[in-house]
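Kindly inspect both lines:
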Amino acid sequence: MPNKTIYVSDEDLKLFQRAQELVGGNLSGAIVTALRRFIEIEEGRQQGYDEVVLKVGKDGVRQIRFSGVLLTEWHQVGNERIEDIRVYRTRKGAYAVHSHFSNWSEFPADTNILKDWKQWRRFLGVGEQDWGDFDFEVVETLEELKGKIPDRLYARVVDASDHSNIEELDI
């Protein structure tokens, strides 16, 4: 097995020692794992993909992370609930749907919109809500996506999939 020598500055020596402790002595394994993650993220970034972190579960208490690009989003405030749906194209070519439904019947009872003016944004459905159900689903094709999201949103996804998000003009 070929050897590679890595020179570490005195300031970074503690970092390498801590990494070695965390992996049980196999520093090269930790370095390889970190390099793989770095390469994956950087290659994705160069291809136009971002690291996406989303809330999932009841009231969004958990998070998930993947590499993707936002194709389109949907925001509707209705009599019964607020709907936020975002559709991403993943780096592997699948479609990820992040849905957030906040039912008015579950509006946090501890919210006093009369005393705290900032709560009006929450009450009016403006901005990212922190209550409700956060769902996440991945499908492989556009055809699988049809029927899972509103028809108007599906039409946007099809259009975004057929065209680049940004059209470069030489004018």
In short: The first helix runs from residue 13 to 22.
